[in-house]
Amino acid sequence: MTYGLGPGEYEVLFAAQGGVCAICGQTRRTRLDVDHDHATGLVRGLCCRLCNRKLLTAARNSPAVLRNAAGYLEAPPALRFLGPRYHIENREE
Ligand SMILES: [Zn+2]
To answer: 7-38: b or e for each residue (b if 16 or more CB lie within 10 Å)?
Structure first.
């Protein structure tokens, strides 16, 4: 048993996910993380390190927060309320 998966189950899940992170869809040379719900222990799927350890953690494992993040990127409040404003790193105006 590894992170709640029985023998061969990682490979079955990996193939079912098409060999990519279940969230961002990127392929990884190293093994994907076995992501699980820390409250219940439920194994959710295979994710890359960035999605598992940064994205889900920053989003507090909340579907609502992740939906808000998608809406935020699609309709940024500064663009809606102020119009286009630009800031590019290392370029002083
Ligand atoms: Zn990912």
So the answer is: eeebeebeeeeeebbbbeeeebeeebbbbbee
